Fold:
Amino acid sequence: MKDVDGTRELAITSRRVDGEHVQVSVRDTGVGLPPQQTDQIFKAFFTTKAHGTGMGLSISRSIVESHGGRLWAADNSSRGASFHLTLPTLEAHEMTTAGAPTVFVIDDDAAVRTAIQGLLKSVGLQSQCFGPRRSS
Ligand SMILES: Nc1ncnc2c1ncn2[C@@H]1O[C@H](COP(=O)(O)OP(=O)(O)OP(=O)(O)O)[C@@H](O)[C@H]1O
Ligand SMILES: [Mg+2]
Structure:
């Protein structure tokens, strides 16, 4: 963007697509992308900068894909380029883990039970806790 004259705008939008993904789009008013470069720019070490590494977009795509999403670029019909990424929604993610087992936590210390339950929840597992039976 620093190489262009006039107004420099960056628009970031998000929307839900196909019920199971959200799409985040970043649209700029920079130099834009030649049509043949819209995929090439994601190759490792591809750069048009004098001192660029060409790793930024390659790493970004790997991160997005490892979370079940996609990242791609397009040239704008007016000025600049747009980058779009999709990621699965929490509901879609939960549906894929819906078959996960319930873990039974048995310990006589309530603090230990609570801590383990929190840990299991943070990795997406349900649990049921059991402490000592009270004798009356
Ligand atoms: N918003 C953009 N508009 C036009 N071209 C872009 C845009 N973002 C990236 N590019 C093109 O994609 C190439 C690769 O980008 P990438 O972020 O992978 O590496 P880099 O920016 O060149 O290097 P570094 O990340 O080390 O600064 C850039 O050199 C540039 O040619
Ligand atoms: Mg970069």
User: Anything to note?
Assistant: The longest strand covers residues 10-17.
